[in-house]
Amino acid sequence: MISLNETHDVNHTSWVSCANQPDSDFPIQNLPFAVFRVAGESFRCGVAIGNQILDLKAAAAHKPFEGKAADALTACEHENLNPMMELGFEYWSALRLSLSRALRTGSTLESQFKPCLVPMAKAEFALPCQIRDYTDFYSSIYHATAVGSLFRPDNPLLPNYKWVPIGYHGRASSIDVSGQTFHRPAGQTKAPDADQPSYGPCKRLDYELEMGVFIGQGNPMGNRIPLDQTDQHVFGMCLLNDWSARDVQAWEYQPLGPFLAKSFASTISPWIVTLEALAPYRTGYLRPAEDPQPLPYLSSEQNSTLGALDIQLEVLLQTPGMKGSQTPVAQKQCMEKLSQSSFKHSYWTIGQMVAHHASNGCNLQSGDLLGTGTQSGPKPEEAGSLLELTKGGKQPLTLTNGEQRTFLQDGDTVVMRGWCEKEGAARIGFGDVSATILPAKG
Amino acid sequence: MISLNETHDVNHTSWVSCANQPDSDFPIQNLPFAVFRVAGESFRCGVAIGNQILDLKAAAAHKPFEGKAADALTACEHENLNPMMELGFEYWSALRLSLSRALRTGSTLESQFKPCLVPMAKAEFALPCQIRDYTDFYSSIYHATAVGSLFRPDNPLLPNYKWVPIGYHGRASSIDVSGQTFHRPAGQTKAPDADQPSYGPCKRLDYELEMGVFIGQGNPMGNRIPLDQTDQHVFGMCLLNDWSARDVQAWEYQPLGPFLAKSFASTISPWIVTLEALAPYRTGYLRPAEDPQPLPYLSSEQNSTLGALDIQLEVLLQTPGMKGSQTPVAQKQCMEKLSQSSFKHSYWTIGQMVAHHASNGCNLQSGDLLGTGTQSGPKPEEAGSLLELTKGGKQPLTLTNGEQRTFLQDGDTVVMRGWCEKEGAARIGFGDVSATILPAKG
Q: What region holds the Fumarylacetoacetase-like C-terminal domain (chains A, B) (predicted)?
């Protein structure tokens, strides 16, 4: 279990002064991890502070820490975060505490660390770690109901939904970091009135607004992870856009689930926000009283802390029309919000997903990525996909500039943002995840 | 396209004389690859010849080859086969040719290579390569129909089956090599007459008789692999037992497919038999004339060579009762055959599976493992799982010793064997894959 400690103290400020702006995603209470480089140099691990990145390889050269924090910082000298993530919670937490103190206003390490800062604007990002297995859950009951009603009008929410944290294995190889571009996928589809299927470019390309959960410490095969111990296994979270070819999905998904409809690309945000940084945003356990209580292996006395996380999420669209002739800065601002929701609406918590995943003895490994499934809220305008927002493509969205969308068009850029905010706690931001659709290959 | 060449010549014999026995799985025409060690030493790559293993690290020290074969042998000095597999078909083929000549009767390399032989009986095996993504297909129409009739009596074979090589993403972390033992998994199940599900040890534990296909050379994301080029991407094949918890599967699998019912363990045979070694066993393309012809991206002028592979497969069971008080050697012989079939009955070929997998631009990677799905033949006794052999557990099998089985019991060992055999070609064996079920953990 993660407790609040001095790293969460809202009174602390950083000598990296831009981190103290109230709207910064990356104040000293956040300290998320990524892998980055400056053009022409090698990739390395870093921590965000304001609009700067602390180069951990450069910082480690000063041997500034002791004990577990020193070991964790040494592990960050690698080209990705896997070696550090494998060390386990005590090491992550010790490193976070030491970084918090080192970046805090008045720290004696300021003079050593200042030359280790790199402006975020100059950074290129890579995947933060080598992703092992990728599992995608289906944890929003609002999404499951809305999608179920499109695919199975008579039977939208299946009887297992309120008992089983439904998930499926996903494709790891095609996951890339924000900034990804990919060609519109082709695939086999069959129109309802067609005699036979055909193969060609996807006509119903969609995004899915998800969160990603990185496993830090795994479990040996055959062992389970009790729900109360799941916090020790989760390193942190990111934003995840799980692109979906809806027409391919509709034709291929029975009986074994989505396959090529989801395996052409998935995009994550570069920063892993640690579960410890998110601790102030745990909410109570929100399951409706009229719903069945979870089976014992998915229940806990500690529900208050194993509960939901109130992470605000939004999706923005930038069409080629919006990019127009404007300057790069104006372009970046010229996007239209499609929806907004919160991860607190998830029917299953992260802890329940992890405990369920290992409940058959399946060995989770450091670097595994769990998707939460599309996060749609209870209101129609809180839907996390175009499939839902347009009622399966039947009700086009009209954008402010007059353009319409049922599904995504070539050149469209989809941006997702996430952040936590409330009175009495520091804002904890995820940054964003952005990716752009290229035309289908000939 | 793979052509027959001197490595397939049935007249060649080896100076490793046991390889020349007509019933040997590993004659000089086979030359499969594995990763092995002698107890106490480090894992290394090897090639089977008769009942011996050629230690490729030791052989490489002699620098016996030139050109691409030399480069491929150098890549085999690694602790697993990934670096060699990544090199591509021309390198695999050159190495095979050089090894064939070196192990052939009369080779001048005999004196150098003889000290590099290790008796197979002394070897311990590891996974032959680091498995990246694992995908499981569903390529036997007989299996799909039989299982479909149990899960969906009204709708056994779905309309997409004859058009789409159905597959789903599987769990890579829990795949291990022959000799694996694993605890009976626990999971959430719901009896048809129960009000609510419960969590406990699986009661319907089953094997699945599959083949595994290892990708050697991948494709860049966004590119496809034309059907006629799939041979250049497939390094080779192994046997695969894809253990299944049928009661967990029945409750969890809708709408996103199997998840925890399959992720607790999968077992592969240690030897990768190269696609080149299997070339003499290509058969014509067997799709029934009354069935729809595949879409163009799954069709080829070269169907005769891209066709099925006639690989004989059998499943054997050894119960704790059979192990009894006998000697280890007698134990090994005391097994009961449950079924026998051939991979030639597969509705989809390996080439079609690979071309379909990459048809949306999904990047396959060296080390990816594709399961073929359970290989059941047209006759009921050719079924590749107990689910089928016992009609969903309703018709128990009575074994020769009087024991009965619907599903597997603790202590049961399941062994699968595979081989190719016909007039005018050398026998090409896969060896076997064996694994044993331990009781559920408390």
A: 162-431
Work out the number of other CB atoms within 10 angstroms of the CB of residue A440.
16
- Higher-pLDDT residue of A346 and A333 is A346
Q: Which of residues 147-166 of A touch B (CB under 8 A)?
A: 148, 151-152, 158, 160, 163-164, 166
pLDDT digits (tens, 9 = 90+) for A178-211: 999 999 999 999 998 999 999 999 999 999 999 9
**CATH architecture of the domain with range B6-126:** Roll (2.30)
Could you please state the CATH topology (level 3) that the domain comprising B134-438 is classified under: Fumarylacetoacetate hydrolase; domain 2 (3.90.850)
Which amino acid, B108? T
The full set of domain ranges for chain B reads: 6-126, 134-438
3-class DSSP assignment, residue B71: helix
User: What gap in Å lies between CA A191 and CA A22, rounded to an integer?
Assistant: 51
Q: Find the CB nearest A158 among B222, B224, B254.
A: B254
Interface check A410 vs B, CB under 8 A: no
Q: What is the pLDDT of residues A115-128, one digit of tens each?
A: 999 999 999 999 99
* CATH superfamily membership of A134-310+324-393: Fumarylacetoacetase-like, C-terminal domain (3.90.850.10)
The answer to whether the annotation marks B374 as part of a ligand binding site is yes
- Average confidence score pLDDT of chain A: 95
ipTM of the complex: 0.96
Q: How far is A388 from chain B (nearest CA, A)?
A: 17
Inter-chain CB proximity B365 and A441 less than 8 Å: no
Q: What secondary structure does DSSP assign to B167-207, as a single string?
A: EEEE-STTEEETTEEEEPPEEEE--TT-SS-EEEE-S-EE-
Q: Convert the pLDDT of each residue in B407-417 to its tens digit.
A: 999 999 999 99
Contacts of B330 (CB under 8 A, 6+ apart): none
- For the segment B354-370, the average pLDDT, to the nearest whole number, is 98
On whether the CB atoms of residues B284 and B392 are closer than 8 A, the answer is no
User: Which residues does chain B have within 8 Å of residue A197's beta carbon, measured at their own beta carbons?
Assistant: 160, 163-164, 295
| Three-class secondary structure of residue A295 per DSSP | coil
Give catalytic residues of A, as residue numbers. Answer: 143
| Token pair of B349 as six digits | 């070929």
Out of A158, A171, A264, the one facing B133 most closely (by C-beta) is A171
Q: Are A420 and A273 in contact (CB under 8 A)?
A: no
Cross-chain residue pair B255–A148, CB shorter than 8 Å: yes
CA of B140: how far to CAs of A88, A257, B354, B375, B434, in Å? Answer: 43, 17, 16, 6, 22
Q: Write down the catalytic residue from B143, B345, B356, B357.
A: B143
- How many H helices and E strands in chain B? 12, 24
B132 near A CB under 8 A: yes
